[in-house]
Amino acid sequence: MDAPGLRQALLEWVRIFMRRSMREFVGWINRSDLSSSQIGALMRVYHRGECPISDIGEDLGITPAAASQMVDRLVQLGLLGREVDLKDRRVRQAALTPQGRKLIRQGVQARLQWLGELEASIPTEDHPGIIESLQQLTQAALQLEGADLEAENALQQG
Length: 158
Known about the structure:
2 domains; Arc Repressor Mutant, subunit A; 75% helix
């Protein structure tokens, strides 16, 4: 396949993947009765682990006071716990509760559910070729991501 053909195929795949995965995820968000910022805070802690409340605010682009209020609400709902940082007692760490972890896992599952359906619709004999192609795409993307991170670090250093 030539480069324009590959680009078009990638664009079509990304469009379908994003539409399907986001449709399921947005549906889950609506059913959760949480705001997108609250979901963002829970996802941040789910993917990166326990963190200072100030980090949640920075990641979401909200003030420390707003982050603190949001975490308070998530603590009230039983989705986050708030603990004193043993290294710096002035800092409060946010951590997912078992209920919060279960909720986020449900969201991740909702977003990826259709992949199981997609896999089942592809003949088994086609799997090895698709796996190889996806591995090549993943490697190329990781190389680009590494180059992007190196450039970003160089800019930050001076």
